[in-house]
Amino acid sequence: MMPSREESQRLLAKFIENDNLRHHSNMVALAMEAYAKHFNKSDPEIDKWWTAGLLHDLDWEKYPDEHPNKAVNEILPEAGYPEDVISAIKAHAPERTGKEPETEIERYLFACDELSGFMNAVSLMRPNGFSDMKVKSVRKKLKDKKFAENVPREDIKKGAKLIEKDLADHIQFLINVFKSLS
After folding, report:
1. What is the mean pLDDT of residues 52-72?
2. Distance (Å, rounded) from C-alpha 134 to C-alpha 128?
3. Which helix (H) or strand (E) holds 21?
4. Host H or E run for residue 154
């Protein structure tokens, strides 16, 4: 049996103290949950998608050089997380793990991770955050190489391709999800 959402939140709090990184983790969890619901997944599957989103950067703060290998090889297996959640987390950083995103949950985690972070940065520059955000404003910021320059634009494009969605549709879906954060 997979650990509960409460146990996952406690694990996140144990490993991540930075409020911004916790916020990012929760945003990706929300995005993953929304996509799982969109696809009419069962409640246990929705929980897996949410959990993969929440814990994808679990070891980033304490073990940045080992991310995500410390989490997927030690922390998560020891805590009882299922292989598909661990595999999705492994596949969100293929350049570090050698695991490319293949399954649906793996592809969606890859697609939601960098774009969620980028969209959060855009929301911080807006007086109303996500509430009145438009796709065109996100796309305009994507073209500005100086804005959130640490976010790899290639990964955002690759993510949309992996989930076979037009980037604008993916952005709009996430805007709708994140409006609750404004």
Report:
1. 98
2. 11
3. helix 19-38
4. helix 153-162
What's the distance, Cα to Cα, between the start and end of the chain in Å? 34
Residues near 23 by Cβ (< 8 Å), separated by ≥ 6?
120
CB count in 10 Å sphere of residue 79: 16
Residues in the chain: 182
For the entire predicted model, the pTM comes to 0.97
Q: Which residues fall within 8 angstroms of residue 64, CB to CB, at 6 or more apart?
A: none
Helices (H) and strands (E) in the chain, counts: 11, 0
* 8-state DSSP, 16: -
Give 82-128 pLDDT, tens digit per residue: 999 999 999 999 999 999 999 999 999 999 999 999 999 999 999 99
Q: At 163, list the tokens.
A: 């989930």
98 Rama class: left (phi>0) / alpha (psi -120 to 50) / beta: left
